Amino acid sequence: MGGHGTATRRWTSAEVPDQRGRTVVITGANSGLGFETAQVFAQRGATVVLACRNPDRSADAEARIIAKAPTAKVSTLQLRHPAASLLPLRAAPEP
């Protein structure tokens, strides 16, 4: 079960130490594991940047996090389609 004879134990978010003074950028932070991760970091004092594709869903996630942690420092960053981020690279001249 634990593999190689090692014991396993369940890890909880309560074990995350104080994150004040740190900034974290979390992709896919508007739902699922990304949202839960963002929420924990915000509750522990980190400055959290929610990097999401959908601005409405990221705004909703930001509001939900602040509702649970009113002093949280949370902002959003809209991600574009991955191919769009390559356009400036293709237009750049070669050295």
From TrEMBL:
GO terms for molecular function: oxidoreductase activity. InterPro entries: NAD(P)-bd_dom_sf, SDR_fam. The keyword Aminoacyl-tRNA synthetase does not apply. It comes from the Bacteria. Keywords: Oxidoreductase. Gene3D superfamilies: NAD(P)-binding Rossmann-like Domain (3.40.50.720). Pfam families: adh_short. Belongs to the short-chain dehydrogenases/reductases (SDR) family. PANTHER family: NAD(P)-BINDING ROSSMANN-FOLD SUPERFAMILY PROTEIN, RETINOL DEHYDROGENASE. This is SDR family NAD(P)-dependent oxidoreductase. It comes from Streptomyces scabichelini. The lineage of its organism: Bacteria, Bacillati, Actinomycetota, Actinomycetes, Kitasatosporales.
